[in-house]
Amino acid sequence: MTEYEFSGKTVDEAVENGLKTLGLTREEAEIRVLEEGKKGGLFSKGTPARVAISKKKTDGERAVAFLEGMFDLLGVNATTELEENEENTKINVVTSNNYALIGHRGEVLDALQVLAGAVANIGREEYKRVVVDCENYREKRELTLRRLAQKLAEKAVRLGRKVSLEPMTPYERRIIHATLADSTEVKTASEGKEPNRFIVVIPNNLKPGADRTDRRGGKLRFDRNGKGGFNRDRRDDKRGGKGGYDRDRKFGSRD
After folding, report:
1. pTM (2 decimals)?
2. Could you give the number of structural domains in the chain?
3. Are 173 and 199 in contact (CB under 8 A)?
4. Whole domain around residue 35: which residue ranges?
């Protein structure tokens, strides 16, 4: 932030001189009073008032300054590109160490975005959305999630049972919900508590007794009664004995 110094007989005069020179209004300027100034007397010489004026940072510029400080703390060499309008702010981060700023499934990037959004909205009455991206990660991740949503919806309909995804952030869950919102074959619901909240894809052709959920896309086995898992009773013989080799039947009872 570049500051410029101006002087005048009074603080107000010094400020007016500075604003006129820089072409700024008071709302657009950061003003620091360096010296109040003193009037001269009969036997003393007065001193002028001095002020330092700089252009006030925008919401996005404050967020960028915060992020650059975080990069220094993390020891990551990165630069930023800012796109800003009245409603949204997008900050793209360029670095050779992508994983350090993105993290597992974007966890680090999401945390930086939350903090940058808080900084950008200081003093604002209406919340302004801030998006922090790195090497176009968010667009790629969104495309991956949309494809995954369609794939699991098809699987849920094909098998006639619920299918759930791994725990996701609220932002990623919204992408899944939005992708399948207009589907006529499935509906979606969020279950669990943060940070392990996940989405369940529920087919409209849900089979009776198939209420158990496939958490990772693997296959659950069901018996004729609709119960999942391995059915030991089917391996028992008709007399109620255990399945497998029956020593008593071959050699007789030892009692």
Report:
1. 0.64
2. 3
3. yes
4. 4-55
